[in-house]
Specification:
Strand content: 15-25%
Strand order of the largest sheet: 3-4-5-6-2-1-7
Bound molecules: guanosine-5'-triphosphate, magnesium ion
CATH class of the largest domain: Alpha Beta
Helix content: 40-55%
Largest sheet: 7 strands, mixed
Distance between the termini: 17 Å
Length: about 450
C-alpha cells in the first residue's frame, strides 16, 4: 500500500534524551493537526514547510507529551510525501504514547525501511542510494562512512549511466549495421570493437575502485603466525595497546586463536593471534596448531613473526615458504636483544623486506602499520567506492558479458551476434540502479533496514 500514511519511532528503544517519531503520507499533516496543540496560537495552513513548532501532543483532553514538530510538505521531503517529525521525550513511555496516538488517528505502523522505500519509489533516490542509506547507518569507521555518504550523494549514478549510454550506443550502431548492410563501412566494425573495449574499461576501473572501497567497509583479516615464543601475542597486545592475550616465557602459551579489531587508518582490521608452530605437545596444543594453519590460509594477510635473537630454524624457513603464497609481511621481533639471526640468509629466503620491531618496547609498530596499509591499499583512498554484494555480483556479470562480446568481435564474428550480450548488460545496469527490479528483491533489500528508516 502506498497511499496510506505510515508512522514509526526512528530512534532506538531505551533511555534517551529525546525520541523521534516520523510520519509520512497523505494524512501526515491532518494527523498532526488533530494531535498537536502549538504553544502559540497560529494558523495551521500557513505553517511553512521545513519549520519547527513547539507545543504539545494531546489525545482529546489528555496531554501526552511536550514536543517539537517539523513539517515537510511534499514534494520537498525524504519520501516526497507530506511528512512530519515529532521530537518528544525519550525513554520508554512518551514515544510509544505519541506513536499510539498517531496510529489511533489513522496512521499505519511502517515496515522496516519503508520510508526509504518510498523515497526510492517516488524517484527521489535510486536503489544504489537507498542501499547506501543502510550502509551509512552500519558503517564502522569514518572512512567507511564517507564512502557510503558519497554513494548516497549519487556518486555511482553517473558511472552506471555511462555504462548504460555506452551499451545503448553500441546497440544502435549494430542495429544500423544490420538494417543497412550495404551502407555499412568497414570502419564501423572497428568502431564497435573500440566501443566494446571502452565499455569493458569503464567496468574494470569501477571494479578496481570498488575492491579498495570494500576494504574500508568490510575490513580485512590478518593472522599473526610464527614459531612458539617469538612474541606473537606480545605483538597483538602492542597493536591493541592493551594486555589482551596471555604472554609468558613458556613456549606454547597460546592455543585458541584470538580475534580483535583495530582501526588501521580507516580499515577495520581483524588481527588474529594464533598458536605457535612446533611439534605440538598434547591434544590441546595440536588443535591449536591445526587452527593456526587454518587461519594462515583463511586470512587475507599473514604477519609472520621471527625472533631476531635466535638463528633461523627449519620451521621458520617452512613458514617463510608458506606465507609467500599470498599477501604477507615479515616481522623481526625482540630487536631490543642482541641479534643472532642472519639477515643475509633471510634476504635470500624472502623478497619481502622485514620490519624490525620490539613488541616489548613498542618500537617499530608504526612502520608495521604503514607497511600493512601499503600492502592493502594500492591507490589513493579517495578513489575508492563501495559496492555491496548485490552490486558486485551484477558488475561481475556485466564484465563477463563484455569480455565475451569482445572475444566474439575479435574472432571476426558478426556484430549482430553480440546483441544478446549487450541486452544482458542493459538488464544488469538497470538492476544496479533499480530501474528493473522485482518485488521480491525489493522486499529483501528493504527488510534489512531498521524500522523508522
Ligand atoms: N626481549 C623481548 N622479549 C619479548 C619481546 N616480545 C615478546 N617477548 C617475550 O617473549 C616471550 C614469549 O612471548 P609471547 O608473546 O607469549 O610469544 P608467542 O609467540 O605468543 O608464544 P606462543 O603463544 O607460545 O606461541 C615472553 O616472555 C615475552 O615477554 C620483545 O620484543 N623483546
Ligand atoms: Mg602466544
Amino acid at each position: 500500500m502506498e497511499n496510506d500514511t505510515i508512522v514509526a519511532i526512528s530512534t532506538p528503544a531505551g533511555l534517551s534524551g529525546i525520541a523521534l517519531i516520523r510520519l509520512s503520507g497523505p494524512a501526515a499533516i491532518s494527523i498532526i493537526q488533530r494531535l498537536f496543540r502549538p504553544a502559540r496560537k497560529k494558523s495551521f495552513s500557513d505553517w511553512p514547510t521545513h519549520t519547527v513548532r513547539y507545543g504539545f501532543i494531546v489525545d482529546g483532553q489528555r496531554l501526552i507529551d511536550e514536543v517539537l514538530v517539523t513539517l515537510m510538505r511534499k514534494p520537498r521531503s525524504y519520501t516526497r510525501e507530506d511528512m512530519a517529525e515529532i521530537g518528544c521525550h525519550g525513554g520508554f513511555t512518551a514515544a510509544r504514547a505519541v506513536l499510539r496516538a498517531c496510529l489511533k488517528h489513522g496512521a499505519r505502523l511502517a515496515a522496516p525501511g519503508e520510508f526509504t522505500r518510498r523515497a526510492y519509489l517516488h524517484g527521489r533516490i535510486d536503489l544504489t542510494q537507498a542501499e547506501s542509506v543502510l550502509e551509512v547507518v552500519e558503517s564502522r569507521t569514518e572512512e567507511a562512512l564517507s564512502l557510503s555518504l558519497s554513494k548516497l550523494k549519487g556518486e555511482l549514478s553517473p558511472v552506471f549511466a555511462e555504462i548504460k549510454d555506452k551499451t545503448l550506443e553500441l546497440l544502435s550502431r549494430i542495429e544500423a549495421a544490420v538494417n543497412f548492410p550495404e551502407d555499412y563501412p568497414e570502419e564501423e566494425t572497428t568502431a564497435i570493437s573500440q566501443g566494446m573495449r571502452s565499455l569493458l574499461g569503464v567496468c574494470l576501473r569501477l571494479k578496481e575502485r570498488a575492491g579498495q572501497g570494500k576494504l574500508f567497509v568490510e575490513g580485512v583479516k590478518a593472522a599473526i603466525v610464527g614459531r612458539t615464543n617469538v612474541g606473537k601475542s606480545s605483538l597483538l597486545n602492542a597493536l591493541l595497546r592493551e594486555e589482551r592475550a596471555l604472554v609468558t616465557e613458556i613456549p606454547g602459551t597460546t592455543r585458541d586463536a584470538l580475534h580483535e579489531v583495530i582501526n588501521l587508518r580507516g580499515i577495520p582490521l581483524t588481527i588474529i593471534d594464533t598458536a605457535g608452530f612446533r611439534k605440538a605437545q598434547g591434544v590441546i596444543e595440536r588443535m591449536g596448531v591445526a587452527r593456526a594453519k587454518e587461519w594462515m590460509d583463511r586470512a587475507e594477510v599473514n604477519i609472520l613473526v621471527l625472533d631476531i635473537s635466535r638463528p633461523l630454524t627449519f620451521s621458520d624457513r617452512e613458514l617463510l615458504n608458506h606465507v609467500r603464497k599470498k599477501k604477507h609481511l615479515v616481522v623481526l621481533n625482540k630487536c631490543d636483544l642482541p641479534r643472532r639471526l642472519n639477515l643475509k640468509i633471510l634476504e635470500k629466503l624472502s623478497p619481502c623486506p622485514p620490519i624490525h620491531l620490539s613488541a616489548r618496547k613498542g618500537t617499530g609498530l608504526k612502520q608495521l602499520e604503514d607497511r600493512l596499509y601499503q600492502l592493502l591499499v594500492a591507490g589513493p583512498a579517495t578513489a575508492s567506492l563501495y559496492l555491496n554484494l548485490r552490486q558486485e555480483q551484477l558488475l561481475n556479470h556485466i564484465i563477463t558479458q563484455a569480455r565475451e562480446a569482445l572475444t566474439s568481435l575479435e574472432n571476426g564474428i558478426s556484430a549482430e551476434f553480440i546483441v544478446d550480450n549487450l541486452k544482458l548488460i542493459l538488464k544488469d545496469v538497470d538492476g544496479l540502479t533499480g530501474q528493473q527490479l522485482d518485488q521480491e528483491l525489493l522486499d529483501r533489500i528493504f527488510s534489512r533496514f531498521c524500522i523508522g528508516k
